[in-house]
Hints:
The protein is mainly alpha-helical. 58% of the residues lie in helices and 6% in strands. The chain starts with 8 loop residues before the first helix and ends with a helix.
Amino acid sequence: MPTRELLSADQRARWSALPEMDERELVRHHTLSEADLAAVSVRRGSANRLGFAIQLCLLRYPGRPLRAGEPVPRPIVEFAASQVGADPEAFADYAGGAGRDTTRREHVAEIVRTFGFRAFDGAAYRELSHWLLPIAEGTDQGEALVGALLEEMRRREIIAPAISSVERLAWETRRRAQERVFGRLVGALVDAQLERLDSLLVVPEGEDETLLNRVRRPPGPPSPKNFKDVLDCLTFVRSLGLPEDVGRNVHHNCLARLAKEGAKTTPQHLRRFDTLRRRATLVAYLSERSAELSDVALEMHDRMIGALMNKAEKMRDEGFRRHGKAINEKVGLYARLGKALIEARENGDDPYDVLDELMGWERFVESVTEAEGLAMPANFDYLDFLEAGHHHVRRYAPDLLEAFDFKAAPSAEPLIEAVEVLKEMNALGKRKVPEGAPTSFVKPRWRDHVVGAEGEIDRRYYELSALSELKNGLRSGNVWVPGSRRYRDFDDYLIPKEDFEGVLGDGGPPVAVDTDYASYLEERKERLHEALTEVGRSVRRGELEGVSLDGGRLKISRPKKDEPEGMDAVTRLVYSLVPRVRLTDLLVEVDSWCGYSGRFVHLKTEEPAKDKKVLYAALMADGVNLGLAKMAEATDDPRITYERLAWASDWHVRDETYQGAIAEIVNFHHRLPFAGNWGEGRTSSSDGQRYQAGGRKAFTSQINARYGREPGVMFYTHVSDQYAPFYSKVISTGVRDATHVLDGLLYHETDLGIEEHFTDSEGYTDQVFATCHLLGFRFAPRIRDLKDRRIFTVEKPSRYPDLAPLVGGTVRTRQIETHWEEVLRLASSVRTGAVTASLILGKLAAYPRRNGLAWALKEIGKIERSIFYLEWLKSPELRRRVTAGLNKGEARNALA
């Protein structure tokens, strides 16, 4: 019989112990009312009054009575004693002695009768199990389920039993939830579909691997051949005939967990699962794999079109450089010729005689021919060089258009019509674009290449233009693909409208602003007006430290270095005292402090790794980029083999376990009193650090003009004011840092209470200003060339004449009002995790300029940026604080 345990020994001990609480938590949970004090006052003696009060406090939080001989944290005793007027030392008389156990039980029974607490009996068990079932369908994390149960018991005033009983209840409910989920995934399938699922685990005759392993093959770098391989795999998955909405009634967390299990479990191991679980796991994996393959194919298209553009631009630039000397010579020649002709006209000489004398007619004709060969396109546009790459695109484009059902917003419908025209041409083998084909989607830059002087359409440029706009449309959300995760309909990312209407009527959305638009605008307008008035007055009087507005031009001096002289010498001295240690010893010692290895739990069983040495070695191989095979060769421990390292890496090491382990380390560091010397853990900064990729064939590597033409990857890291890197992720080098700022603030698992966040200019946009404000974070970027930026007013700019050179216009409040409910819905979707902040902000950033929601968010951002801009001008302390915060992130990057 399987064990009914969900918690590790450490977790069980933590949930069983009485909690350590700070003053604020004591006030919240253990403040006694007048009725409570009246019930306490009738007890005889200080010890009994204090003991009765503490029992009442503990039954309310954490929700269980005091056990015989159990020590009570001193702060709880002192806080209760201060309320009942007793000496805290009197509690020793209540807690000690055999006879006192009878008194303790009598007091508990009296509290239950007086205050209406309930026992954990069969009825309570069934009631709680029914309540927990939908939660268990969304998560199988044992600690989360146990924590939810204990919290609900407190709410219902059910006395919590021993933690083992709570654990068994959670385990049994989770088992029932899993069976319900399995049934939902498999229930709609017919026998033929079930047989096809089972056949995935069998090696077909004449083959050397199962069909499942074929589906799992990695995609490879973007290329027409790999694109076709991905489509072949996607076509096969679609041929299994799984319903498109197969996971609709399953919580996305549960579906994702099952999919991960299906991705990692070998076919042999899957065959050992019971039938229902095996089929449900395969359905979940294939459902996710179908969406993943769709995203991979569309991402390949994006990357290949981008590479084509980069290549054309490079051809143009290289051609110009290659012929630069010859072009310069021709320019010099024609300059001399032109000068001679001008002088000839002024002197009345025959220009042909001058030409013959200077270079001769035949040489002149030759030079004209040479100049024609050297001449670049009139507008120096790299689009002229795209034609050579059309054959490369044709190797995959017909398959792309045929494989996906593209949908579009009304503004992009002409593009979808063009896609249909291209599909029809491909199907019929036509080479000429038919008359009347839509061209309104063609951007002005492309028009001269697509449409000729006589109105004829160039097939190659028409197709290239359509494919380029398709890429842009998918990025922005104007075009979407059913069945994709990354490129689905924008509205599908957000909380459903009907659900959000319920949220509006049930306590309001989880945002940090007044949800009534009129009240919100009035408060921000007043705040902005006060800042404008104060800064304007200070500018007029010349009272801004380090800031001047001279002749309409803003000047801001650099903040002085906030550190005493001689710090470099002190730094070198401190470093000389730090011992050199082996990385392996460091892993082991830090784990002994905070137990981070316990967060690397098995994907299925949630058990911590049994062999920590193997886990450490797998982490080491990952951390120093050595690889598992070389790590196995580098160690002299016979237990650390490649097979064991691979097993630990596959089942214990993944993004979420890394994040949990980082949280353990950061939390331990945060609790250290010494860490308070650097900060309180309430501010943070974030920045990207680029690493060059091993080669151009890596699917994750990308080219960005800012970093040169060598491909690479970007790690974006959030660092607290205590120097702790509490969140890190790999991001695209082709996307601005600002897209990912909020991810670290929202999705870290640490105890840090981040209130203010710093970035450099790459981390700032008006939409990030807006979203941070809506979610309750103070955003404080160090903006490059701030003197060239403009502030915006809600009222007429003429009200602030002293700041006239800095004002760029007024905020379009009507736009915010029109889309206010959509703004709240978007912020709520981000806060609740319905969509990640980076995904939705990336979509909004790519939206057309006049998209209503994106525009409204920018207008809110203008208000918040203007308020921040004005505070930056008047507060040297803010400027120093931001600089210091960013320096901490840069110090971490230097170490990395």
